[in-house]
């Protein structure tokens, strides 16, 4: 049997991990049709069907599941061979907005480690404006941040997905009408904080700040404890919280865009960054 095409093997692993030809194509910076062609050639080479495809679902066949572990080992061995000769350490200094990182981050980082074991990832969580400033100062190689409605789009950004905000609180939390609305917020200059305050002020809703968190995890803990209500994206908040906006008559909150800004050019590092970007917003 002829040697395997490493590009085709890499495409297979990405499709298997992302369960999507479209997201795998984004991660490889190519087209969906190109990924599909690589997979068909790989299956023809092996004489096995690796994937079961329907119009809406992509899943591994029994042979695909068996081949996946070996495919990962092959790509890892290839990466180790390259490192042994080059001696270069690849690093990615990545900024990720507090309002974008979600509960799937641990799984996504593990996936990146399997995909690219030779890459050292330096991850910084923070506010979008601060991360963008560090990117512009070339202290970060790439950032994944929120772009608010009032912000002008930048030419160096690629849109990943839309992210609406909702008013979240614990199921048992109650607000007495007529009392100031108790809020749990991130500290200024958080853009989500500013957007929520603008919406409340415009609607004439009195509010009071009862908790300030250093990150979304801290705010989520305060909400779960029943201290307040907070404007957050549903996907980044603890699962037990509920949307109370309609029940309490709170004003609608804006929808922001999650954007990727990157100056990464090294092909393997760029592919790993795209893998992370493609996996966000899907959990």
TrEMBL record:
Family: Belongs to the LysR transcriptional regulatory family.
InterPro entries given in the database record: LTTR, LysR_HTH_N, LysR_subst-bd, WH-like_DNA-bd_sf, WH_DNA-bd_sf
Taxonomic superkingdom: Bacteria
Organism: Paraburkholderia silvatlantica
UniProt keyword list: DNA-binding, Transcription, Transcription regulation
GO MF, one example: DNA-binding transcription factor activity
Protein name per the record: DNA-binding transcriptional LysR family regulator
Ranges in a coiled coil: none
Domain HTH lysR-type: 4-61
């Amino acid at each position: 049997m002829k040697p395997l095409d490493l590009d085709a093997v890499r495409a297979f692993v990405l499709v298997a991990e992302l369960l999507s030809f479209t997201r795998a194509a984004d991660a490889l910076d190519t087209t969906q049709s190109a990924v599909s062609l690589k997979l068909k050639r790989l299956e023809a080479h092996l004489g096995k069907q690796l994937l079961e495809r329907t119009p809406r679902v992509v899943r591994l066949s029994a042979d695909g599941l068996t081949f996946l572990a070996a495919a990962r080992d092959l790509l890892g061995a290839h990466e180790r061979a390259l490192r042994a000769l080059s001696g270069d350490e690849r690093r990615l200094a990545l900024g990720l907005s507090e309002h974008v990182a979600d509960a799937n981050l641990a799984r996504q980082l593990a996936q990146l480690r399997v995909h690219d074991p030779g890459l050292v990832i330096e991850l910084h969580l923070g506010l979008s404006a601060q991360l963008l400033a560090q990117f512009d100062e070339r202290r970060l190689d790439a950032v994944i941040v929120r772009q608010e409605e009032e912000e002008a789009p930048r030419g160096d950004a690629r849109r990943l997905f839309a992210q609406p905000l909702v008013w979240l609180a614990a199921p048992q939390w109650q607000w007495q009408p007529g009392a100031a609305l108790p809020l749990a917020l991130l500290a200024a200059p958080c853009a989500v904080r500013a957007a929520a305050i603008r919406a409340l002020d415009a609607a004439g809703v009195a509010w009071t700040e009862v908790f300030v968190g250093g990150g979304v995890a801290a705010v989520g803990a305060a909400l779960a404890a029943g201290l307040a209500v907070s404007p957050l994206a549903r996907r980044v908040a603890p699962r037990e919280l509920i949307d109370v906006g309609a029940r309490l008559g709170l004003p609608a909150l804006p929808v922001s865009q999650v954007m990727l800004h990157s100056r990464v050019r090294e092909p393997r590092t760029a592919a790993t960054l795209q893998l992370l970007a493609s996996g966000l917003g899907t959990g």
